[in-house]
Amino acid sequence: MRLDRFLSENANMSRKEAKRALHREDITVDGVVVKKGDGKIIGQQVHVNGVLVTIRQPVYIMLHKPVDYVCSTVSDDGESVLELLPEEIRKGLHIAGRLDKDTTGLVLITEDGQWSHRVTSPNSVCQKSYLVTVDETLSTDLIEQFNSGIQLNSEHGLTKPAKLEIVSDKIARLTISEGKYHQVKRMFAAVGNHVVSLHREQIGQLVLDSSIESGQWRYLTSEEIASFL
Ligand code: URA
Prior knowledge:
The chain has seven helices and 13 strands. The protein is of the alpha+beta class. The strands form two sheets. Strands 5, 6, 7, 8, 9, 10, 11, 12 and 13 form a nine-stranded mixed beta sheet that branches. Strands 2-1-3-4 form a four-stranded antiparallel beta sheet, with no helix packed on it. A hairpin with a 2-residue loop joins strand 9 and strand 10. It is 22% helix and 26% strand. The protein has two domains: 3-52, RNA-binding S4 domain (Structural Genomics Hypothetical 15.5 Kd Protein In mrcA-pckA Intergenic Region, Chain A), CATH 3.10.290.10; 60-222, Pseudouridine synthase (2-Layer Sandwich). The structure holds uracil. Uracil binds next to helix 6.
């Protein structure tokens, strides 16, 4: 990576600030003052005014999405969940797997495109679990129906086997391994029911931390990040 890009990515400088710092002779590479930003940095030690620049690790976040926030980076349809994060960390982040505006629960946010691909890719076996509240009483027949696959409106083929646990009369936990548009709502609609509220509890091995209130967030631990590798 070029030195000027290395500085802007890791030393919290804009390209312009990096250029000025180079010009002021604030930057050394392996102890030698460097005034131009086009040299390649491959493991050398870069200092700014004598302070070592460490390589910034990508950001990985779990957020408890409230209703009425949208899971897109820019939106005309309400505030983005990214606005729940401090402004100084928002730059370059994207959402790994969207929820509808009226769905609550676990949302993952990162700047690591390969990692989010693993979370969302239709080929990954990353399951998602939802707590679902419906309008009509749930019958136990649905367990087998959802396991065998449901024909969704305007889709070719059945949904992949899904695990339904009936929690109470009108509440169930549904675990799916696909992410079709409005999938959970459409699965219940296909069996003549209607989803009243939807809350994502889990993605892969990662469960929404119960100490995170609606609208709050925290960084993932290295074990949590690695659970998707
Ligand atoms: N399925 C839905 O219908 N909506 C969501 O937000 C997530 C899954």
